[in-house]
Amino acid sequence: MTSSAFPPRSSHSPLTRRAFLQATLAAGAGAMMSGCGWTLAEVRPVQAGKGKSDELSLYTWTNYVDPPLVEAFTTQTGIRVTYDIFNSNEIMLATFQAGKGSAYSILYPSDYKVEEMIELGFLSELDHTRIDGLSNILPQFQNSAYDPGNRHSIPISWGTTGLIYDADRLNPGPEDWSFLWENLDKLERRITLLDDVREVMGATLRSLGHSYNSTNPQQIKQAYERLVTLKPAVASFNTDAWKEQLLAGDLVLAMVYSADAVRLTKDNPDRNLKYVIPKSGTSLWSDTIVMPKTAPNPEAAYAWINYMLQPSVAAQITQRQYFATPNQAAYDQLPAPLRNNTSLFPPDEILANSERISPIDPKILALYERYWTLLTSS
To answer: SS3 of 37, please?
Structure first.
C-alpha cells in the first residue's frame, strides 16, 4: 500500500471502476483548474492549526481521487489531501480491524460493507446539519437497506456489473451469463472474470436461477462446480488488466463494472466494443463516503463530503469517468447523450431485476471464500 499526496503524481494506473478520474496532472495548479473544468465548491475554509489539523487522509479505491479536483479543494479550504489505496472491500476492512484505520478521516466502502461496518461499530453517525446537498440524493439512495436515512454514509457513485465484448470477433455476443458456458469452445483462455468472490459467485448463482446473495450451501456448491467447468475459458481473474488485453485482441470478453465498460467504449470509438447487462440479473453496486469514529480530522471530512456533493463536481465526475451519479441535481446538468446512455443509467426494468450484494453470515462467507480459493488457486 502506498501513501501519496496531491500534487504531484508521476505515474498513471489503469483506469477501472475504481480508477475514478484521470491521473494526469497539468503543469501547475492554475493550469489544472482552468483546463480541467472543475468548479470550486462553496466549502468553508478550515483554519490550519498545529500538527495535521490541516490535512485530510483518505483510504480509497485505486485512483479514486482526481488531482485537479483535489487541487481545487485544497485551494478553497487550505486542507492538504493524502491517501492510501485498497483493492477490495475485504482488504479495507481487514486493515481497519488490524488497528491501522485510525489515520483516516474518510473511507470509501461499497454499500454492503457499510452495513457490516455499522454493525461492527466502526462508523460515525453523520451530523446532517453540517452537510449541504443531501436533498439532491435520489430517493433510492436516501433510504437504502444498508444505511437507512444515510445516517453513516453518503453515496458517491453507482453502477452495474456486466460483460464487455469485441463484437467484431464475437458474433453473436452475449445476452446473459449463460452465454459463457454455452460457448466454451469459442472462449478458451479468452475471457476474464473479476477478482471478486461475491461478484463472480453471485453472477454464477444468478445464472443458475438463485440469488446473488444465496446462503444455501448446496446452491453455493453448485455455483462453484459450474465455475470449475468454465475455468478452461478463463485467462485470469482480474479487475484491472482486462482493458489492455481486450484492446490487444488477447481477450474477446470480460466481466466488468459498467463505468469501466462505458469509458473504454467512449475512448475507443473505432472499436466495436459492446457492454451487456445480463438479462437474468446482475449486481447493482454503489460506493460511498463514510467517516470512521477514529477520524483524526472530522471538520476536514465534512468539508470533503460537502465538496463531493456539489452538483457541478458530481456532474463533471460523471462526464469525465462515466460513473452514474446518485445526485439528481448533478444528473440534471448532464448532456442528453449521457442521461440517455442505458449502459450508464439502465431502464427501471433492468434495475428492478438487479440485486445489491448484501452482508452474509460469517460462516457462509467462509464457505464462499473456501470455494473461491479452490477455484483461483487450481
So the answer is: coil
